[in-house]
């Protein structure tokens, strides 16, 4: 175009961040005259400063201090290091002891081992990688590993969620007996474990095939589903994932434990003189409250945060705040074995978590049968 040097247009295009060089009123005005040397220098310098000061890509170099102070990354690295050590010891102990002692291979413990395996995989593919990345300040393993990490953490995390739901539903079937005298057998445990992996696989593969994606999130040191970029593809996937892999297992847990507690309360009311029954009600209530509270603390922030950001695309979120829900969810790998195995006084000597039906006094079993759904 006459009167305008190609060098000036190149600098102006770079200064505009790669947009069309003729967008905006200032660009249209610049076409009416040739730029002075000072103007060319100003545009060139502004473009250079922007390039020098821009935040490196998530796979290029440390994100501090552009996204957050270095101390934030170090703090998260310390947290992830503690999670890696604690979760590996706790879940590893559950798996080793369950495999070593045949008497621990009960159907219920199949699901507990499935939960421990899932938590151990989350620790290895999620917490360990996050620890290394935060210590370095960026995702040092590259984009391919980022996508793989996002997939594996999502897959095994959802397996853990549904394992908790299977445990809750098993206790509902055994205690409340909605289908009669139900016995939780090996085939039921195997089917339940297979369901957790199959269901999780169905809903975590789509981002690898184009429905949404796995990308660096928050501090850019861990990867997960793309819940903050917006767009119909990302939003529809996040909402589907929220329903199928959070709302559904949470509803199953709340339904099962609510009925379980009502059944125990009915039995305890009918047998007020039985100290064992009263103690059983208090113990199971304490366990249920701990289970539900831990589930909500670990997963509600992440699920809610993703839904809010996905449905409010103009919402500005600080990177450090955006990372907190993800790291909260990773701490579930420590809570689960503590609550489901070690908090049970009867199970500590042998690491065997007995079925909740054994918490009820022997004389109360006939009374409890068929009592679900028949409360005052």
Structure description:
- There is one protein chain.
- The protein is mainly α and 376 residues long.
- The protein folds into two domains: 6-53, no CATH class; 70-368, Rhodopsin 7-helix transmembrane proteins (Rhopdopsin 7-helix transmembrane proteins).
- The chain is 68% helix and 2% strand.
- The protein is built from 13 helices and two strands, in the order ααααααααββααααα.
- The protein has helices at residues 6-15, 25-30, 37-53, 70-100, 107-136, 143-176, 186-204, 206-209, 232-270, 275-311, 319-330, 332-342, 365-368; strands at residues 214-217, 222-225.
- The chain has a two-stranded antiparallel ribbon with strand order 1-2.
- Strand 1 and strand 2 (222-225) form a beta hairpin.
- Helix 6 (143-176) runs parallel beside helix 9 and helix 10 (275-311) runs antiparallel to helix 12.
- The radius of gyration is 27 Å and the shape is elongated.
- The N and C termini lie far apart (86 Å).
